[in-house]
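Postdoc handover notes: sequence design on the structure in folder B. Input tokens:
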């Protein structure tokens, strides 16, 4: 008996070879690819232009998604949806969809857990279980895209019934991906990039590379490798502190890759790609949010082609790490701005649904 593999694990070439081995003509792979990545099918039974026997073989040997929904939470304002997905081996991961006026952004995971151990992060506290496969990474994006497509259909149906003139509803396509969920993408580099190649391939999901941001805790070799990639993705580096003593306390991997090494890799990246880098800075009350910290950060980033995202921390229950006050966040941003460092205080999303990384998973596992 053949062990089923998710179809999302296959490249187009691999799928074509598999279908050829089943005796199907070459164009069947194009049809399947379109059903999976353009029409967002969840089941081979939907592929009505395929012979029934082929649909049945696909369903038995190449089921589409490796994910099942273990939990779903929606924020009260309906602007943030968080899923806990169960994987075939019983492990769970988190995926978050954030709805803005003009953007629909999904935040995806690349590992089950994380080995980086950031002290303020629920995922980091749970440790690493395993890497995700490329298909498990792609599947999160398709799940979010399907959810949006379902919402669009509902809006269209309501519009038809109301018989009102004008556009039915706002565009509900997925517009952005941030690789910022559970795990460190550069610690699972090859599978993450295999997934990103599929997600940007015009014949597959086809999202523009410039709409995708990869966020790292700051692994220098990963930053340099990304600079060599043909895909024009955005890079975000989670800094959280501008001196090694504090950063090692907050982000223990800093002990191995201190700030000077991270910044050298970032400079190489900017020199090679000419692209702006985003620095993520989780603002924590009385930990890293003082005017002195802001001045130190502006000194570190002076002259760099960069932008700083200041994110008041999502509070974790019983954690000594709590969010900076709005006043401190605003003062921090103004100090950076006065020194020529562009910075934005980001809104926290979905506080009522455990939107911080790893929080829903931890709650469901307890
Ligand atoms: S913040 Fe990111 S890198 Fe740090 S432990 Fe959490 S998931 Fe890992």
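Designed sequence:
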């Amino acid at each position: 008996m053949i062990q089923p593999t998710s179809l999302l694990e296959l490249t187009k070439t691999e799928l074509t070879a598999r279908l050829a081995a089943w005796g199907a003509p070459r164009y069947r792979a194009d049809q399947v690819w379109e059903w999976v990545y353009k029409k967002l099918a969840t089941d081979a039974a939907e592929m009505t232009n395929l012979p029934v026997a082929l649909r049945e073989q696909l369903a038995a040997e190449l089921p589409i998604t490796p994910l099942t929904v273990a939990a779903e939470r929606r924020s009260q304002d309906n602007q943030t949806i968080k899923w806990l997905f169960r994987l075939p081996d019983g492990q769970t991961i988190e995926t978050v969809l954030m709805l803005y006026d003009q953007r629909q952004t999904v935040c995806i995971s690349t590992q089950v857990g994380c080995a980086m151990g950031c002290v303020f992060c629920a995922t980091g506290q749970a440790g690493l279980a395993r890497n995700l496969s490329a298909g498990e990474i792609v599947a999160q994006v398709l799940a979010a895209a399907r959810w949006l497509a379902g919402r669009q259909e509902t809006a269209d149906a309501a519009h038809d019934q109301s018989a009102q003139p004008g556009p039915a509803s706002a565009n509900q396509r997925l517009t952005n991906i941030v690789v910022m969920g559970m795990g460190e993408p550069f610690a699972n580099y090859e599978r993450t990039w295999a997934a990103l190649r599929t997600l940007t391939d015009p014949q597959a999901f086809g999202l523009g590379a410039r709409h995708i941001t990869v966020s790292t805790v700051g692994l220098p070799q990963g930053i340099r490798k990304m600079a060599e990639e043909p895909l024009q993705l955005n890079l975000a580096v989670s800094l959280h502190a501008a001196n090694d003593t504090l950063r090692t306390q907050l982000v223990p991997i800093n002990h191995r890759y201190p700030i000077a090494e991270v910044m050298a890799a970032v400079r190489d990246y900017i020199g090679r790609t000419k692209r702006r880098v985003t620095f993520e800075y989780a603002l924590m009350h009385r930990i890293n949010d003082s005017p002195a910290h802001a001045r130190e950060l502006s000194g570190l980033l002076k002259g760099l082609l960069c932008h700083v995202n200041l994110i008041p921390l999502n509070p974790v229950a019983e954690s000594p790490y709590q969010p900076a006050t709005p006043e401190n966040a605003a003062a921090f941003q103004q100090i950076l701005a006065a020194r020529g460092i562009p910075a934005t205080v980001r809104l926290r999303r979905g506080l009522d649904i455990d939107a911080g990384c790893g929080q829903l998973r931890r709650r469901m596992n307890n």
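Context for whoever picks this up: The two ends are 36 Å apart (CA to CA). Don't rerun without checking with the PI first.
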